[in-house]
Amino acid sequence: MGDPGATIVWDPRFVDYDFGGDHPFSEASRALAVRLLERSLGRPGAPLAEWVRTVEPADRSLLRRFHSTPYLEFVERAGSYGDRLYLDQGDTPAFAGCYEAAARLVAGAERALERTLATRRPAFHPAGGLHHAHPGRASGFCIFNDLAVAAASALERGLRVAYLDIDAHHGDGVMYGFYEDGRLLDIDVHQDGRTLFPGTGFPKEIGRGDGAGAKVNLPLPPTSGDDALLSLLRRVVPPLLDDFRPDLIVAQHGVDGHWGDPLARLQYTPAAYAQVDRWLVEWSRTFCDGRLLVTGGGGYRPESVGRVLARTGWILLDPAGTPPDAEPLPDEWRVDFFETAGSDAPPTWAEPATTIPSRWRPEHGDRLVDELEAALGRKFRRP
Ligand SMILES: [Zn+2]
Fold first, then answer.
1. Domain tally for the chain?
2. Phi-psi bin for 179: left (phi > 0), alpha (psi -120 to 50), beta?
């Protein structure tokens, strides 16, 4: 047995972050991903993981690295009232214990940060990725912003942070939270804000003051698909990282861009996610000595989230050897899926995508890169 290939942070109490009823966001889907990964790692020849399984809620001083004290006090009071009020304009309800549950997710990101800094191998926090929360308010199912706290924590250590966000929604909490900070490079590819919450993340938004030029937005039209995602990332991310010289990459790995997701329309397939995951490992080795923190994020179709994030975990452990698409999933996990999600489990790791024809053409990418080049005042050569 060699060294573990990566650290995975999963405390079963992460599922206490639960808005109840038929609210679309549920850590139960991430729990399914973790249990599929655990089962798959049990077989001969599977890579070795380091697990962090006990995570206590973040304390005030850690949360204050990004959030305001009045907001922290508001969430704490709201949690003691139970589920009778919303923390924002109607997407993010309070629930009993919501302060502790959200603070535990933040602590998960901090633990993952500590591990990747210590080991120089990837650290994966599938329950995290709550990129919409702002310093003084909740938004879009996100109470506290675990990514922003971990990023602030890395900056406090004197590190330069490259943040990459592939969630279908723009990561507005992180981008505006560090909008004037040039020590955080923010690259965000998402469904066009004119067609999806939160309605932000345009190429013209490049940061301000010291942060000018360090915020990079790639909005994609609905139906875009894998070619759009992969061709743009391949063209812009390596040169940006090369110029910026990060000490750490932080990636928000939402899965709501997956085909069939009920909230977004980007139509990515599992193959695209696997390619991005391999690139994350490669880029972290090339540009920042292997330091890589990956969180989960959005994702509202349990069949997609459960399988994609399990495979992400595997790729972070061992980029070379992942289960093939056609391989059947373990029966015990399929029973678990049925009991958790209330619908039949998928039979294999991935099936052919059910999508409508993509309207994306290579010239759309050229036009988007032109806009980005004009905003940032630099060129991106074709790879
Ligand atoms: Zn999302």
1. 1
2. alpha
Residue 105 maps to which CATH number? Answer: 3.40.800.20
Chain segment 19-49, per-residue pLDDT in tens: 988 899 999 999 999 999 999 999 888 999 9
Q: Does 381 fall in a domain?
A: no
Distance 168 CA to ligand 1 centre (A): 5
Ion ligand 1 — residues with CB under 5 Å? 167-169, 254, 256, 298
**Whether 132 is catalytic:** yes
Question: Which residue is catalytic, options 132, 169, 190, 253?
Answer: 132
Other CB atoms within 10 Å distance of the CB of residue 17: 25
Token code pair at residue 219: 């909005």
382 part of a folded domain: no
Q: Distance of alpha carbon 309 from its chain centroid, rounded?
A: 10
Whole-number Å distance between alpha carbons of 343 and 354: 18
Say whether pTM exceeds 0.85: yes
192-241 per-position pLDDT tens digit: 999 999 999 999 999 999 999 999 999 999 999 999 999 999 999 999 99
- Please state, in angstroms and rounded to a whole number, the distance separating the CA atoms of residues 347 and 281: 28
Residue 178 lies in a domain: yes
Q: Residue 325 sits in which domain range? A: 6-376
Q: How far is the CA of 257 from the centre of ligand 1 (A)?
A: 8
